């Protein structure tokens, strides 16, 4: 199978990310697998997560699906799905908006230690001009980079990592606190989605 991006994929990506910024985390509805694969389905017309939708509503259910499908966690699942899609792995320098990225659990502490993570201003009780809630969705389709640094709070344990979608120099990931934005350099692996 080969993925091809649909006409108008840039505006679909921008609209999805803009709408998803305020969504609450829900196992099987808006989590680290459903969000990225929702984007892939929206920009290519192919839903790699279709077989698993509605199949879990808890953390344990998600872990069972990953284990049954690929024998491991998020990383192993991503390897198998991208292989099935014929999606090539690319270096960070060749990653485009809309590509699928994997951030390993081991990369989160490294990112924090290197100063790559800045907690969302809203969680500190104040808004800033650089916080995601003030971003215009046009930065996604225009290719401009957001002014904010990196937004990630919390994470998963036992899953081995989190999937995200590349957005230029950053990537969108879903954590238990909802959607967060991290540097693209936080992604250990990236696969081209069309």
Question: Could you please describe the fold and organization of this structure?
Answer:
The protein is an alpha+beta fold and 194 residues long. The chain has one domain. The protein has helices at residues 9-20, 34-44, 59-70, 74-85, 107-113, 138-142; strands at residues 89-90, 100-104, 161-167, 170-175, 178-183, 189-191. The chain has a six-stranded antiparallel beta sheet with strand order 1-6-2-3-4-5, with helices on one face. Strand 3 (161-167) and strand 4 form a beta hairpin. Helix 1 runs antiparallel to helix 2 and helix 3 packs across helix 4.
What is the β-strand count?
Answer: 6
Q: Which strand order does the major sheet show? A: 1-6-2-3-4-5
Distance between the termini: 11 Å
Helix and strand composition category: alpha+beta
Shape from CA axes? globular
Q: Characterize the largest beta sheet: strand count, sense, and whether it forms a barrel.
A: 6 strands, antiparallel
Spell the H/E element sequence. Answer: HHHHEEHHEEEE
Provide the domain count: 1
Strand content: 5-15%
Mean of residue pLDDT values: 78
Helix content: 25-40%
Counted by DSSP, the helix tally is 6
Specify Rg, calculated over alpha carbons. Answer: 15 Å
Sequence stretches where pLDDT stays below 50 over 5 or more residues? 109-156
At a glance:
With 194 residues, the chain is of the alpha+beta class.
Write the layout of secondary structure elements.
Blueprint: H1 9-20, H2 34-44, H3 59-70, H4 74-85, E1 89-90, E2 100-104, H5 107-113, H6 138-142, E3 161-167, E4 170-175, E5 178-183, E6 189-191
Antiparallel strand pairs: 1-6, 2-3, 2-6, 3-4, 4-5
Helix pairs in contact: 1-2, 3-4
């Amino acid at each position: 199978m080969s993925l091809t991006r649909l006409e108008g994929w840039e505006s679909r990506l921008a609209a999805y990310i803009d709408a998803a910024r305020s969504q609450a985390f829900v196992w099987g509805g808006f989590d680290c697998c459903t969000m990225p694969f929702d984007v892939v389905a929206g920009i290519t017309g192919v839903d790699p997560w279709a077989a698993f939708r509605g199949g879990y509503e808890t953390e344990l259910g998600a872990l069972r699906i990953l284990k049954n499908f690929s024998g491991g966690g998020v990383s192993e699942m991503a390897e198998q799905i991208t292989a099935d899609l014929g999606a090539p792995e690319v270096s960070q320098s060749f990653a485009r908006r809309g590509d699928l990225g994997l951030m390993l659990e081991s990369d989160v502490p490294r990112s924090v230690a290197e100063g790559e993570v800045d907690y969302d201003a809203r969680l500190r009780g104040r808004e800033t001009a650089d916080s995601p809630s003030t971003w215009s969705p046009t930065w996604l389709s225009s290719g401009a980079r957001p002014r904010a640094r990196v937004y990630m709070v919390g994470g998963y344990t036992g899953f081995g990592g989190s999937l995200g979608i590349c957005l230029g120099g950053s990537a969108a990931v879903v954590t238990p606190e909802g959607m967060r934005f991290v540097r693209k350099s936080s992604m250990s692996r990236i696969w081209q989605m069309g």
